[in-house]
Amino acid sequence: MDWTPAAEAKLKEVPFFVRPAVRRKIEAMAAESKRSSIDLDFYEQAKAKFG
């Protein structure tokens, strides 16, 4: 899954010990939405959905 630099930078703000789980969850959401990449807008939407 491709991540834009802006989305990748936001992901790096997540604590390192949960970052892999967050990445997998966002990538799964993107796959369900038939997306081939994750941009900052999608990252923010996913983050809002997770709470």
Give a summary of the structure in a few sentences.
This protein is mainly α and 51 residues long. The chain has one domain: Proto-chlorophyllide reductase 57 kD subunit B (Helicase, Ruva Protein, domain 3). Helices cover 63% and strands 8% of the residues.
Helix % is 55-70%
List the helices and strands in order: EHHEH
Show unreliable segments: none
The residue-averaged pLDDT reads 95
Assess the beta-strand content as a share of residues.
5-15%
CATH fold category name = Helicase, Ruva Protein, domain 3
Query: Can you tell me the CATH class?
Result: Mainly Alpha
| Overall 3D shape | globular
Largest sheet: 2 strands, parallel
What order do the strands of the largest sheet run in, or round the barrel if closed?
1-2
Any idea what the CATH architecture is? Answer: Orthogonal Bundle
Q: For the record, what is the CATH homologous superfamily label?
A: Proto-chlorophyllide reductase 57 kD subunit B
- Number of helix segments? 3
The whole-angstrom Rg is 10 Å
The span between the termini is 23 Å
Number of domains: 1
Backbone structural class? mainly alpha
Q: How many runs of DSSP E, i.e. beta strands?
A: 2
What would you say this structure looks like, in words?
The chain has 51 residues and is mainly α. It has a single domain, classed as Helicase, Ruva Protein, domain 3, CATH 1.10.8. 63% of the residues lie in helices and 8% in strands. The protein is built from 3 helices and 2 strands. It has a two-stranded parallel sheet with strand order 1-2. α1 packs parallel to α3. It starts with a strand and ends with a helix. The mean pLDDT is 95.
